[in-house]
Design brief:
345 residues; single chain; 10-stranded parallel sheet
């Protein structure tokens, strides 16, 4: 499949500098460019590759100023990263979807299966479950009883969705993830811990993507809620009765304790941890490895444990590096003060 610079520019609303008839047939990183490939430049650290790359076409931001000539045809766009994402989605749309139910899959006769659905070998579909049109369920995935899944879902191998959970349209869940396992609820008793039954569900709204080996627990009562547009990385824990707001993104190994409420459009770094029963306001930025123990205000940026303003955090870190020397200085001052007092006495 080949496309010209003119066709690509028309698709993404770009402006061509160079040969509008230049042809590409593949994608490549700018540092690994080859003839017939299209690359992009969005990180200034990679600017020097623009003058070295062998790629035929390179997408660049409108504001990039050239310091020397380039051999590639350039397509200028407002945001090169967004433009290449759009192109990759367009390219992927040409890949045909699988359809049909494999003879080795089990589908309950009480389940309702939509049009153009694919169910792979050794997948399991439980009683009363509804699968929407165009959804793809890969081998060894287990969909429990009375689950509702919307249209055009994509469930990779070994996904498990427990009974009663509800998923919207265009939901993607990667391998090994578990949706609807019991929340961590135990009451201490005289002889140990008594399990608190988790009778709620998980609700995942439209256009959500969940990475590999991520767990979203069912609620004690009501629902654990992942709102539309959320993107969760691999290895994330969302505990019972949590809410994750619209279009929030969360990096790997983040963990939410029970009943944490995350607002809309938040950005959460890897290994960030949240104590339970707190509210994270809309558009909060939480840095990697932060420990968040209290409510936040809209637009706040926090880092560290406990999470604080980044400016304060980095000032504190600068002081921390000096602590060994400061400790020695204080010890010396104490010694001198003791000697002065002894002389005065």
């Amino acid at each position: 499949m080949e496309f010209t610079a003119k066709q690509i520019a028309g698709l993404i609303g770009g402006r061509i500098e160079g040969d509008e008839n230049a042809v590409i047939h593949t994608f490549a990183k700018i540092e690994e460019g080859t003839e017939g490939a299209i690359s992009f430049l969005s990180n200034p650290k990679y600017t020097h590759y623009l003058y070295e790359t062998k790629s035929t076409i390179v997408l660049i931001n409108e504001d990039v100023e050239l310091e020397q000539s380039v051999s590639a045809t350039l397509i200028r766009v407002p945001n090169a990263y967004e433009a290449v994402a759009k192109l990759l989605q367009f390219y992927e749309s040409f890949n045909s979807k699988k359809t049909g139910i494999d003879s080795l899959a089990f589908v309950s006769p009480k389940a309702t299966i939509g049009k153009d659905v694919y169910i792979g070998a050794f997948a399991y579909i439980g009683d009363g479950t509804v699968i929407g049109d165009g959804t793809q369920i890969y081998p060894h995935t287990v969909i429990g009883d009375n689950v509702k899944i919307g249209a055009n879902g994509l469930f990779y191998p070994n996904v498990t969705i427990y009974q009663g959970c509800q998923l919207g349209n265009n939901v993607t869940i990667h391998s090994g993830s578990v949706i609807g396992a019991d929340g961590f609820g135990f009451a201490p008793g005289a002889e140990g811990y008594d399990k608190i039954p988790q009778i709620g569900i998980v609700i995942i709204e439209d256009n959500v993507e969940i990475g590999a080996n991520t767990c979203v627990d069912r609620s004690t009562m009501g629902a654990t809620l992942v709102k539309k547009g959320v993107k969760l990385d691999n290895l994330i824990q969302v505990a019972h009765n949590c809410e994750v707001g619209e279009n929030t993104v969360m990096s790997a190994q983040a963990g939410l304790a029970g009943s944490t409420k995350i607002g809309d459009w938040c950005m959460i770094g890897g290994q960030a941890g949240f104590s339970g029963h707190i509210k994270i306001a809309d558009r909060t930025f939480i840095g990697a490895q932060s420990g968040v123990i209290s409510n936040t205000k809209s637009g706040e940026q926090l880092i560290g444990t406990p999470a604080i303003d980044p400016k304060i955090f980095f000032k504190a870190m600068a002081v921390m590096k000096r602590l060994p020397d400061m400790y020695k200085e204080i010890g010396q001052l104490k010694k001198e003060l003791t000697e002065l007092k002894a002389k005065q006495n």
